[in-house]
């Protein structure tokens, strides 16, 4: 998961019992409102769209984090999900969609193809949408699991809250190679040492 | 079954057939490219063959051969359940004059297949009603599936952002993700981790 922090400048002052009030700065308040009301524009081009549907459907339920409503007009949305491979022919469309969105806007690169091109190292594909538009959060995976997507959304919310404009990448919760319990190496060893019937 | 069709083509067009072969039930006739359309029309109209479906039409690039491209068409008969493959060799070593007659007026499905073949290989189809690119954009130069198209050549429609080190943008380290343009990939087996990859 990303580097989640909890900075706050909010203070609750209670001079008398039951008559308190809270103070905060305007930017954190706005950021708090923004991060829980992300209207998303799904730019879905490829197989990652299946995982996107899984994330938005009730089992994983993106709506829990305030990013429930998709808006199929870029002018009404502030989070652009680029879900899938972007080919050179689609690049002008994607750039135009991005430019039509009103500030403040964020971009999520969903899956390996959108992040860096994946294995599409060829004449037709854009090797990552960040060649064309700035990108806030990269979610690796081919396709990423819904948990990774939720991690990516939480990472983006944290960045919005902190006013952090630098891009971030969703890390795996455990490194499958370093963690002996996950056992990628062990699994292969056991597979190799299994007697051939 | 479709060996009979190969024999029928041989009997009907003795000069046009360059070679034939049959392997594992696939019957192939290599034709003189001038007879391409006549043989196709014969296959469609002859009641013995009755090829009412053009399954696929594509090309293969052999950069070292002198008719450089091999145009390949697969035919299938829905009524009789047999199929045959036609090939014709076109084009010089530059590939500029690669041209063959269109099959669009015989099978409507040839339209897009021939456009794809033109787009990817640059084989012209004479008499095609609308020979435009179908997969790539009109601004694209060259034909990407030719063997002499450089593997790392891209033709972006929008200029890339002006940022230092655009090949590896921010969160990715120099050895993470796909490099932009072909480069030698490091064998990660040497770095430990999945060390038993070499043993297999």
Task: Please give the structural blueprint.
The complex is a heterodimer of chains A (197) and B (200).
Chain A: E1 11-13, E2 21-23, H1 26-35, E3 40-44, H2 48-56, E4 79-83, H3 91-100, E5 106-110, H4 111-116, E6 137-139, H5 146-162, E7 168-169, H6 184-193
Parallel strand pairs in A: 3-4, 4-5, 5-6, 6-7
Antiparallel strand pairs in A: 1-2
Chain B: H1 3-12, E1 17-23, E2 26-31, H2 36-45, E3 53-61, E4 69-76, E5 83-90, E6 99-101, H3 110-121, E7 124-126
Parallel strand pairs in B: 2-5, 6-7
Antiparallel strand pairs in B: 1-2, 3-4, 4-5
Mind explaining what this structure looks like?
The complex is a heterodimer of chains A (197) and B (200). Chain A is globular. Helices cover 31% and strands 13% of the residues of chain A. The N and C termini of chain A lie far apart (43 Å). With 197 residues, chain A is of the alpha/beta class. In chain A, the strands form two sheets. Chain A has a five-stranded parallel beta sheet. In chain A, α1 runs antiparallel to α5 and α2 (48-56) crosses α5 (146-162). Chain A has helices spanning 26-35, 48-56, 91-100, 111-116, 146-162, 184-193, and strands spanning 11-13, 21-23, 40-44, 79-83, 106-110, 137-139, 168-169. Chain A is built from six helices and seven strands, in the order ββαβαβαβαβαβα. Chain A has one domain: 3-Layer(aba) Sandwich (Rossmann fold). A five-stranded mixed beta sheet of chain B has the order 1-2-5-4-3. In chain B, strands 6-7 form a two-stranded parallel ribbon. Chain B has a domain at 3-141: 2-Layer Sandwich (Beta Polymerase, domain 2), CATH 3.30.460.80. By secondary structure, chain B is of the alpha/beta class. Chain B has helices at residues 3-12, 36-45, 110-121; strands at residues 17-23, 26-31, 53-61, 69-76, 83-90, 99-101, 124-126. Chain B is built from three helices and seven strands. Chain B is elongated, with a radius of gyration of 23 Å. In chain B, α3 (110-121) links the parallel β6 (99-101) and β7. Chain B starts with a helix and ends in a 74-residue tail after the last strand. The A-B interface holds A 88-89, 91-92, 95, 112, 115-119, 121-124, 126-128, 130-135, 138, 166-169, 177-178, 184-185, 188-189, 192 and B 135-137, 144, 149, 151, 153-158, 160-161, 166, 169-172, 176-182, 193-196, 199-200.
